[in-house]
Amino acid sequence: MSTARQHKIVLDESELPTRWYNVLHDLPTPPPPYLHPGTGQPVTPDDLTPLFPMALIAQEMSAEQYVDIPEEVLDVYKLWRPSPLYRAYNLERALGTPARIYYKYEGVSPAGSHKPNTSVPQAFYNKAEGITRLTTETGAGQWGTSLAFACAQYGLECEVWQVRTSYDGKPYRKMMIETFGGTIHPSPSELTAAGRAILAEHPDSPGSLGIAISEAVEVAAQDPNAHYALGSVLNHVLLHQTIVGEETLLQLAKVGETADVVIACTGGGSNFGGLAFPFLREKLAGRMSPVIRGAEPASCPSLTQGVYAYDFGDTAGMTPLMKMHTLGHDFMPDPIHAGGLRYHGMSPLVSHIYESGLMEAVAMTQTDCFAAGVLFSRTEGILPAPESTHALAEVVAEARRCAESGEAKVIVVGLSGHGHLDLPAYAAYLAGGMQDRTYADHEVQESVREALTKLPAIPS
Amino acid sequence: MSTARQHKIVLDESELPTRWYNVLHDLPTPPPPYLHPGTGQPVTPDDLTPLFPMALIAQEMSAEQYVDIPEEVLDVYKLWRPSPLYRAYNLERALGTPARIYYKYEGVSPAGSHKPNTSVPQAFYNKAEGITRLTTETGAGQWGTSLAFACAQYGLECEVWQVRTSYDGKPYRKMMIETFGGTIHPSPSELTAAGRAILAEHPDSPGSLGIAISEAVEVAAQDPNAHYALGSVLNHVLLHQTIVGEETLLQLAKVGETADVVIACTGGGSNFGGLAFPFLREKLAGRMSPVIRGAEPASCPSLTQGVYAYDFGDTAGMTPLMKMHTLGHDFMPDPIHAGGLRYHGMSPLVSHIYESGLMEAVAMTQTDCFAAGVLFSRTEGILPAPESTHALAEVVAEARRCAESGEAKVIVVGLSGHGHLDLPAYAAYLAGGMQDRTYADHEVQESVREALTKLPAIPS
Question: Does A151 touch chain B (CB under 8 A)?
Fold first, then answer.
C-alpha cells in the first residue's frame, strides 16, 4: 500500500456544472410522443398543467441540448454537490481483477441518494409558480425523503404516499420524512378513490409504485394549490439527474481516464439516465466508446422481459400513455428490498435508447445483489442501497470477466445511495432468509403481455 | 442568494494531515497519572499489555508533540477523509444571527461518525502485533460499528457488547455491525462474570457503558489472541481524533477565518478532544483565542456536576483508577437517546484541561437538543446524531446571543455524526413523547458524590 494512491476524486464547488444535459438533442431519432388516453393524440403542455408547473413542462418537451440550472437550485445543490468519485481499490483487490473500478457516490445527499438532484429543482419551480403543496409517491422512501427535504428548503408542504410493503418494512424512512416536515401515508390508502378501489379488491395489497402514483396524482389534481412531483421516468427528471454524469466526466478527466463500461441500476430510469446520458453524448460524438449497461431486478425486469408498448405510468390509468418497456400497469412486483426498482415500466427515454441499440440491460437476482453489497461494505466501507447493489452485482460480474480475460477495463458505476435505512434487508440476507423469484415465476406474465400489445390501439 | 457563496470547504487527499497532535506536550501542567487499583501506584506499560498493543500503550504515555500516522492507516482514512467543513448559511438565516457558523462533518465516515478515526489505527496496531480478535463495548452503536468496519479492513474478528437500552431501541446498529462482519451481544450479558453479577441483582438492567466495558475487558483479558479496544476516554483515542481539528484549522485558513468559539459534544471526550485540542494548541501558542466549550447531557453531566476524583472507568472496577470528572462508576445514566454520551466519567485529559481553566462546559436537556437537531435537518439537510445535537443546541444558544449583542462571532462546531440509525429518537421527539430528566432527579446523587471523594485514598 502507498499513501500516493488516490481513493477519492473531489471537485470544488466552483467546478460544479451549471447546466443540465438533454440527451434528446443528440439522439438519432426522437422518442415517440406521450399520448392522451382519452383522445389518443399527443399530449399538449395544457394537458399537463394540472400536475406540473410550466417550467417543468417546458423542460419535459424541450429539445435544447442544455438547460441552465437556476442559481437558487445550485445554492441548494452545494449542500452536498459535487459528490465524490471513488476508485474502488479495495474491491478490485478482493476480486483479483485488473479492471479499474470507479464509483460515483450519491449517498452523500441529505436524503442519502441521487433523488434530491431532481426534488430540489422540482420544488423550486413549483414554488416560483405559486404552488404551496406537493404530493408524490415513494417506494423504498428515497424519493419521498428527497421531496420532503426539498420542500423544507423552499417552504412547501409535502405529502407522500409510500408503497405499503416498504412503509411497514422500513419504518425509518417514514421517520425521516416527518423529521424533514413531510406527511406520509401508506399506499393503498383510504384517502383516495384509487386507493379505496384497490383495497376493496385486495385488502392486504402490499402496494406498488403504480398504485401510489395514482393516489398522489388524484390528490394533486383536485387541489388548485397543489402539484404532483414524480421521482423518475419523465424526461425532466432524467434531465436534472444528468449533473451526476457531468461531474463524473470531469472527475475521470482529472485522473486521465475514459470509461470502457458504464453501469447503473434501473428502476424508473433516473439514476441510470443521470449517470449514463452524458457518457452517451460522448459516445455519440465519437469522443469515447463506453458500453452502457443498465442493471435491473430479475423479479421486475421491464427492459429485459417487458414489451415495448404504450402503457400507463400508474395502476389506475390516470397518466398519459407512454411508449416504454413495461410489464403491464397492473403488474404487481414482488416485495423485494430494492423498493425503488419495483416499477412496472421504464422511462420512455431510456426505453427508446434501449430500442435504438445504444445501451445494454441485464437482470440481477436479489441474493447476488446483496452478496455484492456485503462485499462492497466490507471492502469500501460504504453500505450501499439495495437498488445500488444491482449495479454492484454487475460490476462484480464484469470485473471477474476482466480477471479471466486479463483486460484492464475502466468500469464506472453509479452508487445511487446508502442503505442505512435498509438494514433489515441486509439482516435478512445475512440470516439466509432471502429468496429469489424471477419474472418467470409470475403466472400473469403471458396474459399481461398479450393485453399490453393491444393497448396502443385503444381509442378514446 | 448567490452561487458565489461557498457552502463546503473541501480538502484534497494530498492535504490530509499526516500527524496526530498530542496536547499533553503543550499543557501548562501534566495530568495526574493513572493508578493501579491494587497498589495505588502509577500504572506501568506492563500493566496494560493484557489489553493493548505496545504501540498504543506508548502513545497513551507519550509526551511527544506529534505522532506520525502510518501509511496503512492514511490509506484507509482516505475512504472518507478529509471530511468537509461547512458554512451553515441556512441555519444562520433561520436564527437571524450575525454569527458565522461552521460545522465539521464526521458523518461521512463508513460508520457515520468520528469513531473510525481511532478504530482504524487501533485495529492496525493490534494486527501488526499479531492480535486476531478485538473486543469492545458500544453505547448508541457508533463505536461498535466503527470497530467492526476497521476489523473488516485488516481481517480481524470483532466482538461487541452493546448497552441493552440501545441494543433494543435501535436494532439497525446491530444489523450494520453484522454486515461489517462483527458479532454483537446485548450488555449486561450472561457471557461474562461481570454481566452475570449485574443481571443477578438487576435482571432488567438497561445496561451502561461502564457495564459493557467490564464485559469486553473481561473477555479480552482471558484470551491471549484478543485485545480490548476503547472508543473514547484514553489519551491515545483522543490523539487519533485530533485529525479532525487539524483538518478544520486548514479549512478555516482557506477561507481566512479564525474561530471565536469552538463547540463539541462531550461523552467520554473523544469527539470534543479531536476537534478542540488543535485549537487549544493555537490558543496556548497565542495564535488564536477561541473560547472552547463542551456540551454534555443534563442527565449525565460529568463535567458540570461530577466530582474531580480518582474513579474506575468501568462499573465492575477492572480498569486502572483515573482522575477524572465522574458521577461515580456505578452511576446508571437515564436511557437518553444520545447513547454515546451515557458515560459516568470524562476523559482524564479533558478533565485536567477543564480543571486548568482552559475550557468551559454546559449541560443541555434532551428536548432542546432534538429541537436543534430538527432545525438543523430542515435547514442544512443533514440529520444529526443525537450526540451531535448537544453541540448544536449550544450553537443555537450562542448564535442567538450573537443576534442580541450584534457580535459576528465565528462559531465552529463538531458535527460528530449522522442520525440515520437514531431515527426512532426523532420520531419520539416529534410525537411529543420525550421527557427531560436532569442529574438532580437522581436520588443517589449525594451518596455517590460522597463515596467518590473517598476513593483516591483507598489502598490495595
Answer: no
